[in-house]
């Protein structure tokens, strides 16, 4: 019975999803339209700006806008046409993010870690990579599918063994799904965004080798961290190794951008 319920649930989930291909060629399944996620992203961004202090104008805001503009100019035309918007949040944590719909936020604490425009481009390029690769859509689609399947399994177990067993199946299954499905999937997204972001920065005329320096600065600033298998992000040393190996392959792209006059002067 359990296997039949699982098969039916997965069939319904797959039927509701569309197949897309990420910028790196990876097959993706998404259940929501870009327009839906863009609307959610814009709403979330407005709520964050309403609740948190932001810088209004000034050098740091102009700095972020300059970097974002240079990176977005290397996206396909339909992605460039999004209503891109930036905000600098007054927050000492070294963090940045991008939301569907072209919304980019940078914490003031990031400027202590990203020590030049190339390093800031590495951070923002990575975050834009999440948007460009539809990672939010992919993530929420997968989480919705997992929650739906676990709910059906719990109902099936409850009908046969009682409510206590149903709760155990749902909670235990959620833990296993989180560790065995959702978190590894998120690491795949993070690694993919590293690749997209590093390529974008090279195309925009930022030095792709500076992505390595940025993450070395992040390690120094953050100190210890939890094991990779319990994290949504790749291990920092593994990430740095991949960025370092990729940087020489992007030097030709970087030099071509400079030769074409793409020489950002953001700060």
Helices and strands in order:
Blueprint: H1 2-16, E1 18-21, E2 27-30, H2 34-51, H3 59-72, H4 77-80, E3 85-89, E4 96-99, E5 103-107, H5 117-132, H6 135-161, H7 163-204, H8 210-222, H9 236-246, H10 251-259
Parallel strand pairs: 3-5
Antiparallel strand pairs: 1-2, 4-5
Describe the structure.
By secondary structure, the chain is mainly α. It has helices at residues 2-16, 34-51, 59-72, 77-80, 117-132, 135-161, 163-204, 210-222, 236-246, 251-259; strands at 18-21, 27-30, 85-89, 96-99, 103-107. It has one domain. The strands form 2 sheets. A 3-stranded mixed sheet has the order 3-5-4. The chain has a two-stranded antiparallel sheet with strand order 1-2. β1 and β2 (27-30) form a beta hairpin. α5 packs across α8.
Annotation keywords:
globular, disordered N terminus
């Amino acid at each position: 019975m359990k296997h039949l319920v699982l098969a039916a649930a997965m069939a319904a989930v797959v039927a509701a999803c569309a197949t897309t291909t990420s910028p790196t060629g990876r097959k993706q399944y998404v259940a929501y339209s870009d327009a839906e996620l863009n609307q959610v992203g814009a709403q979330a961004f407005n709520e964050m700006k309403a609740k948190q202090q932001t810088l209004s104008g000034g050098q740091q805001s102009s700095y972020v806008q300059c970097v974002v503009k240079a990176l977005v100019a290397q996206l396909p035309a339909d992605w460039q046409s999004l209503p891109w918007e930036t905000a600098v949040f007054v927050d000492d944590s070294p963090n940045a993010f991008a939301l569907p719909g072209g919304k980019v936020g940078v914490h003031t604490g990031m400027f202590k870690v990203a020590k030049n425009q190339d390093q800031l481009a590495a951070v923002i390029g990575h975050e834009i990579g999440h948007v460009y690769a539809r990672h939010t859509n992919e993530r929420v689609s997968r989480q919705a599918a997992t929650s739906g399947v676990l709910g059906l399994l719990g109902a099936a177990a409850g009908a046969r063994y009682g409510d206590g067993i149903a709760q155990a199946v749902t909670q235990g299954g959620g833990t296993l799904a989180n560790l065995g499905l959702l978190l590894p999937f998120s690491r795949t997204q993070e690694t993919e965004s590293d690749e997209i972001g590093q390529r974008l920065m090279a195309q925009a005329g930022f030095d792709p080798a500076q992505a390595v320096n940025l993450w070395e600065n992040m390690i120094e600033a953050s100190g210890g961290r939890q094991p990779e298998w319990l994290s949504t992000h790749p291990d920092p040393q593994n990430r740095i190794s991949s960025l370092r190996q990729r940087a020489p392959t992007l030097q030709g792209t970087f030099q071509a951008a400079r030769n074409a006059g793409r020489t950002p002067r953001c700060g």
